[in-house]
Amino acid sequence: MTPELVVLGIIALALVAYVLGGGADFGAGLWDLLARGPRKSAQRELIENEIGPVWEANHVWFIFVFVVLFTGFPSAFTVITSGLFTVLTIYAVGLVLRGTAFTFRHYDSRRALKRPWGIGFSVASLVCPFLLGFMGALLLRAAPLDEGPIDAFTIASGAFVVALVAALAASYLAVAARDPELARDFRLRTRAALIAAGVLSVASLAASRGSAPRLLSNDPTTWLHPMMVGIAPICGLLALALLWKRRDRLARIFVALTATSVVVLWGLAMGSRLAPPTSGITSTIATTKAHEGTLWFLIVASALGGVLLVPSIAILFRVFHQNQKEAPKEGSS
């Protein structure tokens, strides 16, 4: 395997980690906005406890993707960031506002402002995943990034990602809930979000025929592409069946596999092209890759960094959730 393909594999792993972690955080913000029923307060409390101070750690993967892309494929990085400058700026502002609103809602002692902070947190949690799907669709299109960015495909793709991260968050929260009724609330929300994601995926695929034919192309150079088109709905259907049987932990795995297969399918659909044609020039892996020595250095640095980063994040989440479990005991003593 050539070093440029290894680097692309590293980017793919980071994107999967970001969707499974950061995506679930976005989805939690959406459910915070849609909290309803007699357990509305309990739903929001669970969401806040689960996100806690560790949500920022998930966005490390997003930054990592940009650093690796900039180092490994500098020309493609220039085309992508220039073409998506406005959307990326809105996305970055949304991330900052989301974190700010979440923090102020928790620490602001003025009750009248808690709800506005909560709405700000939830709206940003809705806008950011929509923009992720929107940008992913723009990169798949045949048209240049600055040419008619808004169409049925980009809108349907953005809405699909919102539904997908909502399903991820609800599946995580269903497992985290200690109250059976609260777990049932999020189990139902997981099912609803999965069904919505299924409908929106069909709409996105249908709209892609005109603007992004690469998504459904049967490329003979890779047998994985058509296989991944089928794996995503199969995992989603298995998750729905497991939720019906109240097998929340196993269902959570298949919801995560659904999201993972979507990311892999997107990467396979991109193929050797890293960005749509700009000024008559197509950014491919071969034409935009850095010097081979730089790529190997990047691979080694990523491996060494992963040895430190992955265990650190795992310990962070373990300590945080362990403190959550011990907190009620301390309060009752």
Q: Which keywords apply here?
A:
single chain, mainly alpha, 13 helices, 81% helix
Characterize this entry briefly:
The protein has 13 helices and two strands, in the order H-H-H-H-H-H-H-H-H-H-H-E-E-H-H.
Task: Give structural notes.
The protein is mainly alpha-helical and 333 residues long. The protein has one domain (3-209, 281-327). Helix content is 81%, strand content 3%. It contains 13 helices and two strands. The chain has helices at residues 3-33, 40-51, 55-58, 60-72, 74-83, 85-107, 111-140, 152-176, 180-211, 224-244, 248-270, 285-288, 292-332; strands at residues 273-278, 281-284. It has a two-stranded antiparallel ribbon. Strand 1 (273-278) and strand 2 form a beta hairpin. The longest helix has 41 residues, at 292-332. The model is unreliable at 328-333 (pLDDT under 50).
Low-confidence stretches: 328-333
Mean pLDDT: 86
- The value of Rg in angstroms is 20 Å
Percent of residues in beta strands: under 5%
Q: How many distinct folded domains? A: 1
Contiguous helical run count: 13
Count the strands?
A: 2
**Secondary-structure element series:** HHHHHHHHHHHEEHH
Kindly name the structural category.
mainly alpha
Task: Give the topology, please.
Elements: H1 3-33, H2 40-51, H3 55-58, H4 60-72, H5 74-83, H6 85-107, H7 111-140, H8 152-176, H9 180-211, H10 224-244, H11 248-270, E1 273-278, E2 281-284, H12 285-288, H13 292-332
Antiparallel strand pairs: 1-2
